[in-house]
Amino acid sequence: MTGRVILVTGPSGAGRTTAIHALEDLGFEVIDNMPLSLVDRILGEGVDGRPIALGFGSSNRDFSADAIQRLAQRLSDDPNVEFDLLYLDARPDVLVTRYSATRRRHPFAPEGEPQVGIDREEDLLTAVRTRATVLIDTSDRTVHETRDEIRRFFGGKSDGDMAISVQSFSYKRGLPMGADVVFDMRFLKNPHWEPELRPLDGRDAAVQDYVMQDDRFAEIFARIRDMVLALLPAYRDEGKSHLTVSIGCTGGQHRSVAVAEFLVKALAEGGWRVSTRHRELERRRQITAPERE
Question: What domains appear along the chain, each with residue ranges and CATH number?
């Protein structure tokens, strides 16, 4: 097929239905809670030029995290498809509050406490979450604010704006899906080899100072910053509604995180609307034994 495809998923209660409705309002043909076994048939028939959004709830009878990832990779690799995996998320305590307020039973714990089902679903979706190209945390957003965020990412450039995401990652786990521009920070001195810095990450001032002290940092970062600032108007004028800049290092904990933070600040100061994700830090929060650089 040829065209725009968005896969929409996330834990129950995080706002997937709100996202689906917002995409429908933007002109997407939407199909929610569809069986994975029918996806190839739907996409094979084409979408008559309309963008399409497919919603997948993890409680569907044939839902498979592995199958979602395979489908996402296939669509991402297809040069004829403009693809995103949109993941709606919320903190566990917020999900518990939402279930308590609505008195709904969690599909993963119909006879038990919502927290049990939330934990089970989080385990199931961890791998899918880390593959998302757009992640929206609805924990502190109203329904209207979530819809506004969907419009910001997928509503085109009617207001002349473009949503920018800066994402850090580990080369050990491969390039992020949906990356438009990629920079490799493995040439910088690695804070991992400093015992006092090893347990920290690139958001900590001590790590950022260490990265900046590398003799190669100032010139290289200035070139990266100026290149991105020069590219953004061109991408916007070509009609992109959002752009992902990915910055990698060996473990995704120190150098890439620090440089991503520096770049986000520079782009914000340049007047761009920008958000940040640290893929490996997100993953470490969800697993028992963190990976190290």
Answer: 3-154 (3.40.50.300), 163-285 (no CATH)
